[in-house]
Batch of 2 targets.
Target 1
Amino acid sequence: MNIRKCFLYCYLVYHKGIWCKFFNSISGYLKHKLINAIAGTLAVLLITTGTTLGQRTQIKGFAEIVTILDEDGKVSFGIGEQDLFITSELSNRISFLGETVFKFSPASPTDFNVSVERIIGKYNYTGNHNLLVGKHHTPINYWNDTYHHGRVFFPTITRPLLFQKDIVPIHTTGVSLQGLNLGKTRFGYDFMVGNGIGAGDSLDDNTNKSITAAIHIKPKDGLRFGLAYYSDVISGGPSHSHGGNGNGNHEHVRVNQHLLNASVAYFGKKYEVLAENIFAVNHNDSIGNPLSVVTYVYAGMRIKDKLVPYIRVDYLHFQQEEPYFAYDNTTAVLAGIRYEINFLAVVKLEYQYEHHDLTGDVSRVVAQFAVGF
Amino acid sequence: MRESMLRRSLYTLCFLTWMAFYCPLLNAQDSGLVVIGNSEDVPSELDRRQLISVLRGEQQRWKDGGNVVLALMEPDTPIGRNVCTRVYNMSGNELQKYFLLLVFQGKARAPNYFDSAEELEAFVAKTPGAIGVVSQQTNSSVKVVSVDGNSTL
């Protein structure tokens, strides 16, 4: 039954065309070879791990309902993403993780889009060291590697602006090495090679590979310090889709992108602090090395068992010559309160204010009911 | 004189009545906890730091290579509450959120939760690498894991 669920999931994903494009683009002989290679690799891994199939499969989901009061006094009710999350242990050392999001999309004939956010095969080769293949949330910053699409876990209603402005390369399809909780400081690392920005989910758009190198330590419970570096060559042309990570709607030149992220997170019994900063350089021979600085700081304090007032400040600064990110310096402040009914149901009420150098000011009040199921 | 003796007797009676009714309740909440493990893979001795690391899902494998499999009482049971407080320093709600987030990140396996200690012990007995916490060992097929040299936490 568990294995059937797993195959059913893969079948559904296949029929959404994610794999179809890739398979249709190659010849029959190559297809045959590729399928044999994948099947052979899986067989070897299963045999060498020497264990039986029929392990646990878990299906979880996350969803949200929001209400927005905008500056014109208009109140809108809306549904956000519905996230379907599956994990399955295929053998003693191999496990599978899939995350698929269903969300409203006016461009779709059905008004909804299905987006495969993560498909990860994990091979635990020794101790706390893993080899991961598939489509990942790039482990470049704390938020992206921690909360994914589980809105019930978000400390605020929305992601930080550095996500909305596409500073973070949200996804990477590729292969990575991961280490977790090593030694007394609970050191962890991720080293990933992937298709990078501009690539689709099945094919790269250029010959360059993105590199992500991230390390972190957790010296005490709830406290985590992280440092990450990301490098990629982004082909010139129109802006890229969310799957390959976009940069707004404008043409851009080919750039060599370098991102350096530093983060500190503390989620204790009473206080919560999360701060992340990215230094970004999009190098182009004719433009040089304009430096962009994006940061956010979140702070919350648990005043009662289930009640957390919080504040978040976002700051995005770009140099005028910036060739890749949409040039729109932004400062934003939000303040809100979170009521945690239990670990599967959270209500948040938030006032959001954003100042954009180019497009002016925006403010709104948003309420969210986020659940896990 | 007789009145004061009567009063003393009355106080003693009240105290004994309180002891008789209240102490079993204290025992249910705060009695010692016993760490049990499967006879395969799970070591017979751990220090407290190692135990906490294992029970927090931070260790994927035992030293001999076997998988770490967690067996916990449901957090809303008396033993489960006791384990949450004394081992994890969390409420039941916090513990479930903690593990849901780890599983969602793909960084740990979800613990196996049980409503009764008998079921938990039976699971640990038949699952290689399984470790769990109960109030006392009743199944001879599992071994007691000593923590810092003590058989109870």
Target 2
Amino acid sequence: MASLFANYFNGFSGFFTPYVTVSMILWLAVGVFLGIYIGAIPGLSVTMAVSLLISFTFSWDTYPALALMIGVFTGGVYGGSRSSILLNIPGAPAAVATAFDGYPLAQKGEAGIAMGLSTTESVIGGFVGLLCLTLLSPLIGRLALNFSARDYLLLAVMALFLVGSLSNGSLAKALITAFFGVVVGMIGMDAVTAQPRMTFGFSSLLSGINFVVVMIGLFGMSEALYQLHFELKPIKQKVQKILPDKKIIKQHLPLALRCSLLGTLVGALPGTGGDIASLIAYDHAKRTVKHPNRPFGQGAYAGVIAPESANNAAIGGAFIPTMTLGIPGDSVTAILIGALTIHGIRPGPLLMQDQPQFFWMIVGSLILANCFLLFLGLTGIRLFCKVVEVPKYVIIPIIVILSVIGSYSINNSITDIFWMFFFGVLGYLFKMHDFPVATMVLGIILSNILDTNWRRAMTIAHGQLGEFIGGFFTHPISLILLLFVIFIAIPNSKKQKVFAFFRGKKTAED
Amino acid sequence: MKKFLSIMLASLTLLSLTTGCSSLTGSTGGGNGSYPSKSKSINGYIAWAAGGGTDNVMRTICPLAAKNLGTTIVLSNKTGGTGYIATKYVHDQPADGYSLLLNAENPPLYKLLNLGKVDYDDYVPILLMAKSEGILVVPANSKFNSYKDLVSYAKANPGKLNIGTTGVGGLPYNCFALTCIVEGIKYNSITYDGDGTLQPALISGEVDASVISQASALQYIATGKLKALGVYSNSRCDNKELANIPTLQECNSAYKGLLDEWGAFYGVFVKKGTPDNVVKALQDSFYKAYQTDTFQKFCKNLSLHPLGYTGDKAQQYIKKWQSITCWALYRAGTTTKSPADLNIPKP
């Protein structure tokens, strides 16, 4: 293990570069500010913004260009939570879980508190992720590398348990929508066999239906239709308290730390990022927080704290494989690798060896960006709260327009707009009949991971079920994850019985 | 009053939206006049994801070419279907030179793999800018130390060797099909959705072997994370770190003739039927961009071989690649259709 850390702190001087280079400080701040507001507008995603920035900063020097993109990344992941809380439209996939309790908080007039909480927890989560990036990269990088297809499968199964958590009321309805989501996620060309699935001969369906388009439709469009139906009046917001109560933060600090660590690890896994991290974190919070201030789904603070700390921690996590191995930890770091390559820098083990100060420069920039997030994230909250108070006949058309623009901007495809409307109507019908919409989004997110990794794991095991199951017992990571899954799956009543047995005569609570 | 206000707002919004709509087919006023027209920008559609190999090459050369043309090239990624989605989309646009297809080496395989009916036969190559070659790699602690070790293991244990691929028609897939027909081995293909998930699997040993491009291979081999067993080319690599990897031709002379000028390539294309003056303007500007120091240095950094083929030379290159690869895929038993049905000549 020591050999992993030998030479790790070479080039540490690079860490201070962002703090002494004025152009970097400037562009980091600009980036965070832009990122927050880009992320806050539903339909405009961080991924799209960063890829636009590549062309925009093509002729710039590397360092300022990088500072701008890092700033936008940091701000954007947080910014998505704003529209989740205010409009029930996730600004980004990573903010889906924030809407579960964030929007009910806004409905109760506490949008300001929710956003303030979201900012502080994002910053806390960000720092934890960056701490791991700074001190533990080689270790976490090695760990993330050893995740096999089996382990991804188990992670997806863990996230699947969220279906139960989100089924307020009827489990059957939640399962139906989740199932439907999984099926929608499978439309398109199958990666393994290159055969189209459920495309009915349309070549526009070969890459499937873009999941962000579905999300905008299911959350945004349907919400607009739902509110039109019920003619809801906007709620007056309490805007006096924005800086959240220190007591709330302190009380939930252990939860925030756990979720941040979770977020860091999930972010460090190539191919998974903030969206999975926040969903697993929400599920974890729901299972471990016994006495939330309100029931989950109706405005529990823990329901905002958990996903927000996880998705910002995932930023730090995503940079671990990106810098140490040259393998992107999520979609935005993939674009960042491209941007760096165009500027002549190839992130990866060779860069760590030859130019270690570059790694430290990135770490320094990320930390500075996170600091800016704290200040800039608390701006404009009062202004944004006013958004919720805008009369519905103004805000609903704006939501519709933003949804259309957002769906088009993903792939420059008119078909996506039609899909968005279709899922909007579908989501409206779901809401009218108490079918949860969130579980459908969950199904779509997990569909690909479940399907691909199951088949991959079985193929690696040469199609032999025995070899597949044996793999769980010969690989420590798989074994631990399997035990976790079993533990989560056992209903609470049975668990209490086992604990009571071990505690002797003491009676179990609850 | 409220009703009147909302009707006014709605109509204003609708009107402002329609001004944003320009017909996709573009103004016919462009005609045979000057290309490119000052009022229109050129759209470049990259068939692969942002941050990937094709994306990097295109985002480097297009701004340089745009400067030569005196206009802007707006780049966007239209991914999916091994590049088919972008290929079909650009084909649906008018052949006026304002929609460029920026794709890699996969389209000649589309008809054979049943992905669709549009491929490079419907396009005119503007420039084939560079190519890269695959390097056969195994994890650092693999028991295979040479190409021969790998092949003898595969022959002794048919179907047991786990090979990582990036999907049907990708570089590892094509390379292993070639090896399959030369050596007659059977292997077990594990599919990953791209380099981003394939490379961790290689480094951790989840798969036994795969093929990756020189640029990626360079950093892993130089830092000891992967071992290289051979390069799918008829000449060794230029970089000093990769120079002692034997070519597959050296390992087995049966590869002779199959690896000449073979590999992954990147190109700019316009739809067939585009006016000649437009094609010439595009070819000139892209070739000038190709010759710049910026682009050449970029290729050198990423171990890409600059090609700079245009016109007939490009067509021949593509046809040769198609013939070798299609017949390799067919003979390896991975396709249902035969290239003979598509009139693809044998290599």
